[in-house]
Inverse folding.
DNA sequence: TATGAATGAGCGTTCATTCAT
DNA sequence: AATGAATGAACGCTCATTCAT
């Protein structure tokens, strides 16, 4: 019995989480009502409170989920490549693919939404959110250093700064895509970024 | 009578605008209450309505101000340089300088805040906001084309995509700075970006 | 569950409707607050919105109820009589009986209240309200024509005008009763009206 | 100086009173704001308070004025006729003429508005308002008694009730006209009423 | 005397949260 | 475990009234 119940609980939590993410994105964290989230999860208004003690906690959980998804995506990308630069390109491709996918527009908005929330009320979901980007930068920095060591990228470039730049580029592309919709060609931006990485090869190796 | 009143009116409007910007940023557009904005402007709640007919209009005005400021900044930067690439660098410097200034953190957040609002309820301030970034991309594209024509930038690069990339980079840097605070070295990112632009010079021109 | 809920819902709606009618009359549509209406219905302020989407809808519902009641009253009166003049008298008796009943003072005030509202903001409940009196006049006109055809009323009288006059008399009596309270003998007015109808018999039939 | 000032004060009071009456009628007592009334009187918002201590007092004064106007109209009508029945007809003609005049629609609405207000908050303007109709009924009763004495009206009719009936008819006609606008032919109603009064002549006198 | 900016109480309405069922 | 009716605090906004000028 315990097992079944436990499974049910997790299933419900997941359903609520998905419903909440959907509504947070569709209408904004503030405008999304618990009623709507409950309806989206085929539940009644009060039922959510059996699984999450408050709307804030729900937001935290939703963002935490987004964080995990991102981390996973990253791990997968690095695992399937050998050269450091190849890994960087693979990660870039995966990351920008998400931006082309209309479905991921929601993730971008959730990211912005939670970034704003994080900046404002540092306690609710600040640290968690912060750590994702910090971790991404660290990973990218590591890969860039590897690429520099193997002569794929000019050693004169500040690895940490380049990592931050790449992440900024990706976040900014998402923001633009969000705002300008189809007007902005995210793939073209990706090509520019990929091209730039190639250009950052040491002068000697490009003769 | 008229003089004092007219001056007062403009002063009040400015004070309210500043107070609103401050509160919108500090607590978010939705969470910021008219009471708080009024208090921040040393006014009573209802007094704001003598100057702005609704909270939405206040938001619009605040964002409109940000928009104007951005446009001005751009115009100034382009006016004081001769070569296209120099103009790009000048603009980059000016743009990134704003990110270093803790005071401009507010502008970034307002931008995000209004982007989210624009995406969701396109009517309130969507178009205006959208057009700013569209205009920026167009201007950058123009400068890049000039630089390509004068041999400062490789003609093989998609000018429009590069323009979008640069803007995305800047927006993303702002976002990161917002989230990670002092941990992220925005000036270092700027250096990387400037360096990348240099690297985009045609191969021939680079010895 | 369903049974109890459904019954409760209707009961609540009724209670709210009655409370609203009471407060609209007691303090005026504008002065009556949702808080007061809720309190009168032993509910909290926000609870009303589960049953009626706005104060305007509540007003509409309250007036619609009054309308239905009036129509019913009329139908009943006409159904139980044979001669047209008898029907007229029956209707008069029923109508004036309502005026004697202190409880119906509320209906009169609601009528005035909604007339004023209708005249000013035709949309909210104007047409509905208007049609009631229009319908009443039409019905009365029909009966008067019948009575004229059967020689009970002088054919020289303008049936439509007489119908309007009778309705005006009734409305005005209500108004007077409202204003002068017990000082005005509504039954005496009714007698006068009934007597007048008799006097309107064709000269020939009065030997 | 005192005289001039006094005259000015009265002029201002009159202007404010007229402006208030106009706005009370146009938008309803509650919806009419002091700002609007002031604007209508070419005054600033606060200036009214030099002449009337509150909006309630303004309402009282406005209604008092309407009362006086009515009384005057009545006096004039009775002064110019000899026979009692002629006076009744004259009064009827004058009264109904006001209903035909679109400008007097405002008076009707003010009357209803103030009746409602009187019924609800008996102190503010209740008694004054009440006395007008009481006085009218008394006057009519007197005339009817005279007419009965001189054989113009059947002595069997309850004079007081007939007076109330006539007043009710007039009030109700105003109400109907208000609600149904041009659809209701107030003059036709007047004809009916006049005709009815004729029919109330003693049987003997009608051969 | 007149202005009109400012106040502040109060309105209709919404919604996170609770709790009897 | 789940419901959904109810609460109550707060929000945006309006306006009668006050008061420095």
């Amino acid at each position: 019995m315990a097992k079944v119940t436990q499974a049910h609980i997790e299933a419900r939590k997941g359903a609520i989480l998905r419903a909440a993410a959907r509504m947070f994105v569709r209408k904004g964290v503030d405008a999304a009502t618990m009623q709507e989230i409950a309806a989206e999860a085929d539940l009644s208004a009060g039922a959510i409170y059996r699984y999450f003690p408050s709307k804030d906690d729900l937001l935290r959980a939703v963002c935490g989920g987004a964080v995990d998804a991102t981390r996973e995506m990253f791990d997968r990308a690095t695992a399937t490549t050998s050269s450091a630069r190849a890994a960087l390109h693979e990660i870039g491709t995966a990351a920008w693919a998400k931006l082309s996918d209309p479905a991921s527009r929601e993730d971008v908005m959730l990211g912005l939404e939670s970034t704003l929330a994080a900046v404002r009320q540092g306690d609710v979901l600040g640290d968690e959110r912060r750590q994702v980007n910090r971790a991404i930068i660290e990973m990218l920095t590591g890969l860039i250093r590897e690429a520099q060591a193997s002569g794929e990228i000019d050693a004169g470039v500040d690895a940490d700064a380049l990592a931050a730049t790449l992440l900024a580029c990706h976040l900014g592309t998402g923001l633009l895509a969000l705002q300008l919709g189809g007007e902005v060609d995210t793939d073209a931006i990706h090509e520019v970024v990929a091209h730039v990485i190639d250009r950052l090869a040491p002068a000697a190796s490009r003769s």
Remarks:
- Residues 8, 43-47, 50 of chain A lie near DNA strand F (CB under 10 Å from a C1').
- Chain A touches chain B through 50 residues (CB under 8 Å).
- Chain A has two domains: 1-53, 59-205.
